[in-house]
Amino acid sequence: MGKPVRIEQVTKSYHGLEALSPTSLFLEEGEFVSIVGPSGCGKSTLLRIVAGLDTPTTGRVSVADRVVTQPETDIGIVFQSPVLLDWRNVLDNVLIQAEARKLPHDVYAARARDLLAAAGLKGFENAYPHQLSGGMSQRVSVCRALVHNPSLLLMDEPFGALDALTRDQMMVDLQKLWLRSRPTVVFVTHSVQEAVFLSDRIVVMAPRPGRVEAVLDVPLPRSRRLSMRGTAEFNAIVDEILHHFQRMGVIRDEEDEIPENTTVEMAL
Amino acid sequence: MGHADTTIPISVTPVPVWRRMRAFYPIVSLFVLLGMWQATVMLFEPAPYLLPHPIAVANVIVSQFPALLYHTGITAFETSLAFTLSIAVAMPIAFLIARFRWFEETVYPLLVVSQAVPKVALAPLILVWLGFGLSTKVMIGILVAFFPVVISTVVGLKSVPKDMIFLGRSMGLSARDMFRKIYFPFALPSIFGGLKVCITLAVVGAVVGEFVGADKGLGYLILLASGQMQTALMFAALIFLVLIGVVSFALVQWAEARLMPWHSSVRQDAGH
After folding, report:
1. Which residues cross the membrane (chain B) (predicted)?
2. How is chain A split into domains, by residue range?
3. Whole-number Cα distances in Å, B231 to A100, B38, B47, B50, B154
4. Exposed end of chain A (fewer CB within 10 Å): N or C?
5. Mean pLDDT score of chain A
6. Poorest-pLDDT segment among A17-21, A162-166, A250-254, B58-62
């Protein structure tokens, strides 16, 4: 089960330049929270601060009432690239988590096999990373982040490098794996659809300096199916997020750029 | 990706067994070379002290075989010692450079400057310091050969991706485990690149050491044969020297394939 995460007035500056304005956020235990926003909005920075891999300039983060001062270890991280260790086969790549934490090998080998099977990688346990496709590698990386049953799962644009079809499948599989153990999740993404499909709550961030623009609830029932993306409820939330982006000037509709007289001519 | 190359067979024409042997093409080029040598000797009939007949060289190899073998053994021993000690010297330096910024800033420039000195020019000095024994040849070998190992190891250790380091830290790996489980295996392909250069340079170092002062070894034999205008013996010694180079290089390559079967430089399916 997940632990609650409290982010209190966290800021980050690099060489006096503010990358992240004071940000506060509370994640309930077992909650799936996505952070969406354009590049440069500080979402990856925030993720690293929560992981204890980076220190906030001011403010603090606590996981289950304990202030984060060093890298968290009750944690699983999935990066944009799979970051698999080329010299280990799939099973050993997942098991490095157990090795690092001196956990019993046999118990976790069974767990790892079980997870890999659930992620559709049955029969690939002894394959090496160079034999896997991009999607398969990222699945291994997700299994590695979950095998030790962490309370906190952090994902930094995990499906950003995958093609659209693979991404759809990955969303469904991630939801399935997450529902098994329900860690608290921070999921950073560029994709609005992905965020709405997966999340309990969505944090919309704005760039320069990075700040929280809005926080939206996603009251859609679980477990969600891909077909849900066609429903009015789903698209209402997507539109709301896009509306925020439009207001920030991150995306612009075509009409906004065309001078007024042109539209008149076209109408005639 | 792995699944892609199983689906489309590129060629359906069966390749004969003898052409699939990896040794086939190098052997062909060797025979072509020998043929050209023979043809040159027959066409231009140079004096034997300039370019001996291949048969004459073969005769020397047969008649002088025990002596050649003895000198080869000496040079091979010096080479392997120089190679091993080069690794022993280079690795700790490289680890410290990659680990500590202050060490990098103090030692690295010094090391680079030291490489600007032609190490062969130092050989007479080493001879004065260490005498005519084994240590002179090994020392010159180390001086010539250790630098590429330092460079390649530093490059390997420093190119570990940031996310991989984050991963290790999020797993709570100790500094020792971080090195054993992430840094070292990641750097291994690069390290082997350096070792391959190192082994060939170790042979050079050993021979240079024998040139400046020795009473045995292939370098000594070549000098001796040169002084006596025994060009056929010189050729024979050179051939054995080439053998040392080729065999030692192959040994490093074999170790590479054993230690890192996952890597693309070793895999059969990669390249071509």
Report:
1. 23-44, 80-98, 110-132, 138-161, 182-212, 232-252
2. 5-74+150-267
3. 63, 16, 10, 7, 44
4. C
5. 87
6. A250-254
CB atoms within 10 A of CB B118: 9
- Global ipTM: 0.86
Q: Which class in CATH covers the domain with range A5-74+150-267?
A: alpha beta
A86 contacts B263? CB cut-off 8 A: yes
Strand ranges, E, within A37-161: 58-63, 66-67, 75-78, 152-156
Paired strand residues for A13: A18
Query: Which chain A residues are closer than 8 Å to B169 by Cβ?
Result: 53, 71
As a whole number of angstroms, the distance between CA A83 and CA A81 comes to: 6
* Separation CA B157–CA B168 (nearest Å): 14
DSSP string, A199-212: -SEEEEEETTTBEE
Q: Which residue of B has its CA nearest to A134?
A: B1
pLDDT at A227: 87
Phi, psi of A63 (to 5 degrees): -110, 120
> A62 vs A7, A26, A46, A202, A243, CA distance in Å?
7, 10, 13, 20, 32
With CA atoms as reference, report the closest residue to A32 among A71, A5, A50.
Answer: A5
